[in-house]
Amino acid sequence: MSSSLRALRKVDEGEFDLSKAHHVRLISLIRTQIAHPTGDGEIIKQATNGNLTKLKECLENGSCIDEVGDSGRINALMMAIHKGHNEMVKYLLDQGADMHYINHSPYCDTALHWAAYYKNPQACKMLLERGALGDIPNYSGVTPLDDARNHCKQCEALIQEYLECSLVARKRIEKFREMLLKNPSLDVEIIVTNL
Question: In which ranges do the ANK repeats occur (predicted)?
Answer without folding.
Answer: 72-104
